[in-house]
Amino acid sequence: xxxxRNLSKKVGSSIHINDVSLMLEKGSLNVLLGATLSGKTSxxxxxxxxxxxxxxxxxxxxxxxxxxxxxxxxxAMVYQQFINxxxxxxxxxxxxxxxxxxxxxxxxxxxxREAADLMKLTPYLDRGVLNLSGGQQQRTALARALVKGAExxxxxxxxxxxxxxxxxxxxxxxxxxxxxxxxxxxxxxTEPQEALLLGGRTVTLHKGCVTQFGxxxxxxxxxxxxxxxxxxxxxxxxxxxxxxxxxxxxFSQGLVDCPKQLLGLADGPYSxxxxxxxxxxxxxxxxxxxIEAPVSSTEISGSETFIxxxxxxxxxxxxxxxVHRVAIGDQIPIYIDPSKFxxxxxxxxxxxxxxxxxx
Amino acid sequence: MAQITLDKLxxxxxxxxxTDNDFALKEIDYVWDDGGAYxxxxxxxxxxxxxxNIISGLLVPSKGKVLFDDRDVTTFQPEQRNIAQxxxxxxxxxxxxxxxxxxxxxxxxxxxxxxxxxxxDEMIEVLDLSEKANxxxxxxxxxxxxxxxxxxxxxxxxxxxxLFDEPLTVIDPHMKWQLRTKLKELHRQxxxxxxxxxxxxxxxxxxxxxxxxxxEGEVVQIGTPEELFDEPxxxxxxxxxxxxxxxxxxxxVVGNQAKIGSHSVDLKxxxxxxxxxxELGIRPEFMSFNETxxxxxVQITGVDDIGRFKIVHANxxxxxxxxxxxxxxxxxxxxKVTLQTSRTNIYQxxxxxxxxxxxxxx
Amino acid sequence: MEKTYNNKAWLLVIPVFxxxxxxxIIPIMTVVNYSVQDTFGxxxxxxxxxxxxTDVLRSERFHNALGRNLLFSFIILCIEIPLGIWIALSxxxxxxxxxxxxxxxxxxxxxxxxxxxxxxxIFGRGDIGLLGHTMSLLGIxxxxxxxxxxxxxxxxxxxxxxxxxxxxxxxxxxxxxIPEAYYQAARIDGASKWSVFRFIQLPKMRGVLIIxxxxxxxxxxxxxxxxxxxxxxxxxxxxxxxxxxxxxxAIGQFDLGPAAAMSLIYQLIVLLICYxxxxxxxxxxxxxxxxxxxx
Lengths: 359, 362, 295
Hints:
The structure holds three protein chains of three kinds. By secondary structure, chain A is an alpha+beta fold. Chain A has helices at 40-48, 90-101, 105-118, 134-147, 164-179, 192-198, 216-221, 226-231; strands at 2-11, 14-24, 29-33, 55-60, 63-64, 75-78, 152-156, 184-189, 201-206, 209-215, 238-245, 248-251, 254-257, 268-274, 279-280, 289-300, 304-311, 314-321, 331-336, 342-344, 350-352. Chain A is elongated, with a radius of gyration of 24 Å. Chain B is α+β, with helices and mostly antiparallel strands. Chain B has two domains: 4-12 and 24-235, Rossmann fold, CATH 3.40.50; 249-358, CATH 2.40.50.140. Helix content of chain B is 24%, strand content 33%. Chain B has helices spanning 48-56, 78-81, 98-108, 113-126, 142-154, 173-190, 201-207, 225-230, 235-240, and strands spanning 4-11, 25-32, 37-41, 63-68, 71-72, 83-86, 161-165, 193-198, 210-215, 218-223, 247-250, 252-254, 257-260, 263-266, 269-270, 278-282, 287-289, 296-297, 299-305, 309-316, 319-326, 336-339, 345-348, 351-353, 357-358. In chain B, helix 6 (173-190) links the parallel strand 7 and strand 8. Chain B starts with a strand and ends with a strand.
């Protein structure tokens, strides 16, 4: 188990990591989700021991590892740029950590072939690494990380430089392969979709702080604050400022009745978050809030349509299934079900989230 | 603005190409309409960057011609073709400010000073860079730098086409969104012919009016996003477009029925006798779990929850399929799937086969 | 699986320590020692504090030598840096001529410095030297042993011949690392060759140019062997640089005190100028971009 206690890292006057405390279980898959520059790589480097924290503790299985140099920690790290030893063949690359540790030839051979098999590299074992495609080079780097049998595996956006479809395939294979080793698996990414597809637990990072840590789908359904909700949303969540007055929500374009479960909320200003696919084009009984706004642009992706609406300072994105052709400038109505509101207070903390599992 | 014609265009990186395989780009004949938004979509190594470089003039093709309107520009250099190109990573002049960066191409073409000022001011507004206009370009974020790269192309009068080579590669998902939308707006506003190379099908489909799907140097299909989604002409297109991609199942076709193992499925029309490799293609969005117990029994091997829908991985007689479940739906205890008849496609040796007569008579 | 990690590496470094101590640290401390002492002979020394330092700093001889050094370095930098950049720009970046050019550039750097001095000494002689003889055939009055201008000219040309390659190789390395996309974008923008140089190549070579500048300044300011072999400091003391003057005093006149003081002052001047230059160059024109923070 890896534990981080009040970990901070300051470089000059800028704070890269701000008071992070986490406990990561053995054999768990953890996703570090955050925008570029949110601190993902800094945090991973601290966990690996490549950087020393300004303050705080890192404990592995209850023992502090701060004084332990990187070479002695049992970790493996894979980067976004496929990093391999350019002069070696695939076989040698995968064998390198074992050669350094002085493992005997026979064991090396068995383990290399095992890892190559898992990564589908067996036909390429004798090739020079630079003659492979991007996907194969990254698989080599992953195989090298695999043979180490490390307790902690750190992957820093490893699939970001790969083709879309290749990414999809590897994303499914990776967790399975590393789960069998029982290592703590940490995967950094900027894409919410990847976090959801990987599952496991997610740590959301924003400006060096951990904003939430929990089961991925829980973080998705109950983001603790607006930043987390935005981090975890692609396309970005729609946010409307509303004011609760008695049993209604009032905003610049109108008002809507407050749903029963929210009547207990204090009156006052709130930020209401609505996911783009909860904005409907068709009227329905539960969708009691109607907003009319002109279309500013549309994007069609074959199976889905994104419609952008702009009215004054109200910017909305609607995501619908299928193809809908609307002209720019058309005034179209959209309907929202208030029970799908995410309500954030003035300090951007979550007050209420829609319940899940209800059709 | 120009119409771009590719006339029997092909390219090989080898000195003396002999067989088809020696060509990185196989023969292509196509006319790109003036002012259209196109995407070149395909995996790494499919030849899309080669094609883009031939259109921009950075590469001279081994065979065939490139025409802008009616002029043969095949051997012309990029500066003579009046095109603009945005690269994978932002290319800006470090020592200049944002404004100076945008003025640069106009100054080189000796445009009068007041014209330059007018155009550059307009461009800064359009790109939402007003606050940073007088800062050194080096200090900006990646997406702002890409906007500057793009702006340098748009600011010119004489641009025939703007070519994009995977421009959103270094951009964060959040900004990717905004930049994509911005590109679409800019296309509408300025009406330039825009050609966009990418391996990301979402980018291609949302940006382009027409998508050119490429695979191993060949153009596999050209169509609107809907055409590519509904009727992919090749199993590769079906697999590549859509996330997850189309399910491809080996079947036997008799008349208007397909047999998957021991189960029968209705097809959207009648087919003649088919030989060779016969497959049925159906997208995960058009398969559903049946409550009433009718349908093909499946074994569930896993479920991915991505919030707004779930992807269910299942097995029909050891053939893997994916089914999309919408938010709020659940999997019945005895799972059986049905396929939407009108969305089934039949492929013979990877190519689409049209039914003789559509059941609905169309 | 753990990599072996212990302190054995320190043992490997001890020989180097001893070497550096013997060849650098102890000698420098000896110099410091001499610079604050005087002797009437017979190996007896007494403390004089900073007297030598003030003497040196006030002496005209020192000022003249210093002036010569500054002038020399200035001229050298003005010639070698632009020339080096120009040659680097002209060198091919791809193809079979690349290794040939690189080797040709490296050759002058491999020649021992006193051999360089000797080469040019013979080269410039009016009777047997190719240059000297050609000059007299052309009717040009050229004699580096008794003409101040000719002596300076020969030393400068000798240094340019010897050291420009260093600037070339450094700039070449910088140039080669510029991604092709920048040139492509410049072509598309319609930029002239001068614009490409000014806005793409020069800014991207900033790092290597700083290093080239520093190295050439330090080396030219400390120059000793080549001019010594060529002119011995003459004619008169027109080419007596600080280093040559120092040796004259220390070994020729056996004035250890002033020589030691002068050498320390010399060293401090070099350090000071380099420090100022480096600090200025690192900060000018390099406002840290917003993405400089670690991720």
